[in-house]
Amino acid sequence: MPFCLSNINMLNALFKSYTLIVFVAITHARISNRLFTCNNGNKIYDYFACDEIPDCEDGSDEDVNNCNMHLCDGEFSCDSGKCIPDLWVCDGINHCSKGEDEHQNMCNTRVCDDSTLFRCSSGKCIPKNWICNTILDCPNGNDENEFLCNNRTCSVDEFKCKSGQCISENIVCDVRNDCFDGSDENKAMCDARQCFNEEFRCDSGKCIEKNKVCDGYINDCVGGEDESEKICQEKVCENNEFTCKSGVCLKFYWVCDGRKDCSDGADENAEMCKNHTCSDDQYRCSSGRCIEFYWVCDGRSHCINNADEDLDMCRTHNCSEDQFRCSSGKCLAFYWVCDGNNDCPNKEDEDVHMCKVHECDPDQFRCDSGKCLNQDWVCDGIADCPDKKDEDVEMCQKHV
């Protein structure tokens, strides 16, 4: 049978479906708060709770009382308590046992986040980068409507494929077809492509940020010219970077960290590290390595000899203004306080009395638990408050 476009589209569609299944599986397998605890203490993935199929040995994942209390994390909640991805809502297929994810009235009035999502006429919300990619993602195919795709406008940091699909400018002319029609790798277009002054042009026509040139990482250009000796010898590193003899620029915290990042090991020279100084807002390890001040007493070792986590030192250590100090000296990010998880060794970041009166800054959002959030985390489609207050539907409808 000839391998025509319809076959390619079918494979692409199957691949996307497989990718979605893997994405959903990974999403529901998050260890932190996506496990369901059975009454007997065993744990199962939260995704399998309240799906009307017992997975706990004692069947408690399908217990009516448990399912009535079951909360979905930024997903659609079926009447049974089962959680399904938003992508499955109003897609023409009943995923909830009673079909409430496909109720006509709900789908007719459903609103999608216009900044990142496209609303199908069925009410299904799909990622905007799925529009005009030659695959029918809306039940009636209106995401591939010819008029829509011909007149579609991509954002300033995107490239418009001939099909109307929008892809990131960063992946154009990278010798890999990211447009389904391959128009992002058109030879004539890539040969004539110009980059901005603050960008570096690869031989293929790909444009990369200049700070990625000679950064010691893997090649960003397909031909590796961004890490070539000739280019790197001519490059000038930033003031807060270390320059290897080869011209490679290293992050300041890679210097004197016990690992050779320069090809000749110059960043770990013993004499240099002995006299290496750090800036006032950095902490100096005995090896000479400089680390961010807020890394000190954060529960993770950044110095070779663990000096930044020394218990005696941490007891008297002062945390930065935007951190919470545990009695052990450990410093926590403010959004770890009153979030329902014990991050301090003595659990004082979740003290009930403290959380009840815990105040947030004027430019922050306060959860009922006492947890403080950045305002841009509110009504972003992801529940950050333990009780999901930041994604309350009525509040978000009024949220600007």
From TrEMBL:
Gene Ontology cellular component list: apical plasma membrane; receptor complex
The keyword Ribosomal protein appears for this protein: no
Keywords tagged on the record: Disulfide bond, Glycoprotein, Membrane, Receptor, Repeat, Signal, Transmembrane, Transmembrane helix
PROSITE patterns: LDLRA_1, LDLRA_2
InterPro entries per UniProt: LDL_receptor-like_sf, LDLR-related, LDLR_class-A_CS, LDrepeatLR_classA_rpt
Keyword Repeat set for record: yes
SUPFAM superfamilies: LDL receptor-like module
GO BP, sorted A to Z: receptor-mediated endocytosis
Disulfide bond residue pairs: 38-56, 78-96, 120-138, 154-166, 161-179, 195-207, 237-249, 244-262, 278-290, 285-303, 319-331, 326-344, 360-372, 367-385
Superkingdom per UniProt: Eukaryota
Membrane topology value: Single-pass membrane protein
Principal location listed in the UniProt entry: membrane
Subcellular location as annotated: Membrane
CDD domains from the UniProt entry: LDLa
Any Pfam family matching the protein: Ldl_recept_a
GO molecular function ontology, one term from the record: hormone binding
Record PANTHER family: LOW-DENSITY LIPOPROTEIN RECEPTOR-RELATED PROTEIN 2-RELATED (PTHR22722), MEGALIN, ISOFORM A (PTHR22722:SF14)
Protein name, UniProt field: Very low-density lipoprotein receptor-like isoform X1
